[in-house]
């Protein structure tokens, strides 16, 4: 099966507290801050059914983000690198993008919505509903979204995909799927793209770096970046770990400096080496028929 082409866009960088980002939760805020700088990525999948964007990146507009975000994460948008111009610089037209998947609604993922005025923007219902609450308005700043913004709000189908209890196939060939990754936010989703024998797991902000995630998981620290919804976050960590143990996976979080190199090389994690094809088709029976 042919490989799918993925384009990575870095719209800016952020500086956060490493202790907090490693999943030690709010208690880390009591300790000395250790600055860690990391990128913010968005992706465009070139698919025969039309390009699909995963997130829209940061905006460089001065009024965003608000002071409460500034205090915790110092945003550093890269001039001229909002996703629209960045796509054009690589010969891609944002107007060709038919669908935008928002993994969640944080400002560094929804900041570039204005670059896709004609696209259908897919918003998972729990994210949509949370954004309307007081806490959601504080966190997501919906007043920064385009004035005429009308997302397509969807529910996942009760169709398990591997360890994920629900999913949504976005393409007729089933090669692009949305899976739930609650924890960092209540309705966060990931995207799984099948490319040949490898699965690309776009894991949004559930984890910050692959190496941290694996190390923390081994040590029993399952919170990752799920401090907001801790119970769901631990379950999501278990599911992601089960997935990467079962299937050769290129893990692509939104803020991992090493993710683009892994994507370019299509080099999957080694964890799945002991699993046979029969085990795999048992885990994901819906793929065996394709
Ligand atoms: Zn983020």
For this entry, give a set of tags.
single chain, alpha/beta, binds zinc ion
Structural commentary:
By secondary structure, this protein is α/β, with parallel strands linked by helices. It contains eleven helices and twelve strands. It has helices at 18-24, 67-72, 83-89, 107-110, 125-131, 134-140, 210-218, 230-246, 259-265, 277-283, 285-288; strands at residues 5-17, 35-46, 52-54, 74-77, 99-101, 120-124, 152-154, 168-169, 176-180, 189-195, 198-204, 249-253. Strands 4-1-2-3-5-6-7 form a seven-stranded mixed sheet. Strands 8-9-10-11-12 form a five-stranded mixed sheet, sandwiched between helices. Strand 9 and strand 10 (189-195) form a beta hairpin. The mean pLDDT is 89. The structure holds zinc ion.
Overall shape: it is globular
Helix fraction, binned, reads 25-40%
Q: What kind of sheet is the major sheet?
A: 7 strands, mixed
Separation of the first and last Cα atoms: 11 Å
Number of strands: 12
Task: Tell me the fraction of residues in β-strands, as a range.
Answer: 15-25%
Hetero compounds: zinc ion
Strand order of the largest sheet: 4-1-2-3-5-6-7
Low-pLDDT stretches = none
What's the average pLDDT?
89
SSE arrangement, N to C: EHEEHEHEHEHHEEEEEHHEHHH
Helical region count?
11
Determine Rg (CA atoms, Å). Answer: 18 Å
Given helix and strand content, the structural type is alpha/beta
């Amino acid at each position: 099966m042919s490989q799918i082409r993925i384009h990575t866009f870095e719209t800016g960088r952020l500086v956060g507290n490493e202790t907090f980002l490693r999943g030690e939760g709010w208690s880390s805020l009591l300790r000395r801050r250790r600055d860690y700088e990391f990128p913010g990525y968005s992706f465009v999948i070139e698919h025969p059914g039309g390009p699909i964007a995963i997130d829209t990146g940061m905006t460089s507009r001065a009024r965003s983000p608000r002071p409460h975000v500034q205090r915790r994460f110092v945003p550093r948008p890269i001039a001229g690198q909002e996703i629209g111009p960045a796509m054009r610089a690589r010969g891609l037209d944002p107007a060709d993008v038919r669908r935008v998947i928002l993994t969640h609604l944080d400002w560094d993922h929804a900041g570039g919505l204005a670059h896709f005025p004609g696209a259908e923007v897919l918003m998972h219902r729990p994210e949509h509903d949370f954004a309307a609450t007081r806490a959601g308005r504080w966190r997501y700043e919906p007043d920064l979204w385009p004035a005429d913004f009308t997302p397509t709000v969807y529910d996942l189908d009760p169709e398990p995909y591997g360890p994920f209890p629900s999913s949504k196939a976005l393409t007729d060939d089933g090669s692009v799927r949305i899976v739930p990754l609650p924890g960092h936010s209540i309705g966060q989703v990931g995207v799984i793209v099948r490319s040949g024998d490898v699965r690309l797991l776009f894991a949004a902000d559930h984890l910050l770096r692959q190496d941290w995630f694996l190390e923390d998981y081994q040590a029993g620290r399952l919170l990752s970046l799920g401090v907001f919804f801790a119970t769901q976050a631990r379950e999501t960590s278990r599911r992601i770990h089960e997935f990467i143990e079962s299937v050769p996976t290129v893990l692509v979080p939104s803020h991992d400096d090493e993710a683009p190199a892994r994507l370019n090389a299509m080099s999957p994690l080694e964890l799945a080496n002991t699993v046979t094809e029969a085990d795999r088709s048992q885990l994901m029976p819906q793929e065996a028929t394709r």
